[in-house]
Every structure is written in structure tokens, then in C-alpha cells.
Amino acid sequence: MSKLSSEQAIAIEQQTQTTIAVNSKELALQIAGAAEEKKAQDIVLLDVSDVSYLADYFVIITGFSSTQLKAIAESIEERIEDNYHRLPVRVSGKREGNWIVQDYADVIVHIFLPEEREYYNLEAFWGHAERIEYISQSS
């Protein structure tokens, strides 16, 4: 288990004090909207609250290059921090750039390249969760 630096610990403490309350579905929808702004495709929300203790929602997103995946992740982080003063609890995969995971505690975001999304097929693995198709806000 890794230790937090003093800067990380302070940031988490400050975030805890200033976080704006938001329900997990609204958070998931805001995440989807931020992803859409960066031309993400096949955005799906899975309500896993009844079938998992990990989170209430998974947001599954496809991007088409490592650069786009990183841009989507940054867009999500900026929107959620600006609107709710929240940062992800942890982020992984940004360096590799083929599958980025952002953990917002009650919402976990999976940003995939198409090949990885097809290979891991989270929608099938969590097939018993309620699937919510994200309706584009730009149309």
C-alpha cells in the first residue's frame, strides 16, 4: 500500500471540507457530458448499486486514441472539480493510455480504446446491472 505525500493528504482533507453534495446518478451524468465534449462515443452508464459494493455507477466510454483518452479524462476531472470540488480518489492507466480508470468512490469511470473495451466487455460482465444509455446533449 502506498503512502500519501503530505501534499496529497492536505488536498484530500481540503476536498473533504469543500465538496459539494451530489447524488451519484447526477455525478455519472456530468461525467458523461464532460466525456461527450471531447467527442467520446458509446457512452453507457451502468447502475451497479444493487449488484456491487464497489460503486453506484460505472460510466463506460470509448475514445479512439491515447491522446483522446487523456483529453476525456482531463475534461471529466476539470468539470467535476469545477462543479463539485471533487477529485478522483484514484486514477490509473493515464500513462499507458489504452484504458483509464477514474474512481470517484460512488462512480467509477472506464475510458477505453475500442479494442480494450471489446476485450474486457464490462457491459457483459456487469450484465445484471441496469444499463442506462446516455442520450447525447449535443443533438
TrEMBL record:
<keyword id="KW-0963">Cytoplasm</keyword>
<comment type="subunit">
    <text>Interacts with ribosomal protein uL14 (rplN).</text>
</comment>
<keyword id="KW-0810">Translation regulation</keyword>
<protein>
    <recommendedName>
        <fullName>Ribosomal silencing factor RsfS</fullName>
    </recommendedName>
</protein>
<keyword id="KW-0678">Repressor</keyword>
<dbReference type="InterPro" id="IPR043519">
    <property type="entry name" value="NT_sf"/>
</dbReference>
<dbReference type="InterPro" id="IPR004394">
    <property type="entry name" value="Iojap/RsfS/C7orf30"/>
</dbReference>
<dbReference type="GO" id="GO:0043023">
    <property type="term" value="F:ribosomal large subunit binding"/>
</dbReference>
<dbReference type="Pfam" id="PF02410">
    <property type="entry name" value="RsfS"/>
</dbReference>
<dbReference type="GO" id="GO:0005737">
    <property type="term" value="C:cytoplasm"/>
</dbReference>
<comment type="similarity">
    <text>Belongs to the Iojap/RsfS family.</text>
</comment>
<comment type="function">
    <text>Functions as a ribosomal silencing factor. Interacts with ribosomal protein uL14 (rplN), blocking formation of intersubunit bridge B8. Prevents association of the 30S and 50S ribosomal subunits and the formation of functional ribosomes, thus repressing translation.</text>
</comment>
<dbReference type="GO" id="GO:0042256">
    <property type="term" value="P:cytosolic ribosome assembly"/>
</dbReference>
<dbReference type="GO" id="GO:0090071">
    <property type="term" value="P:negative regulation of ribosome biogenesis"/>
</dbReference>
<dbReference type="GO" id="GO:0017148">
    <property type="term" value="P:negative regulation of translation"/>
</dbReference>
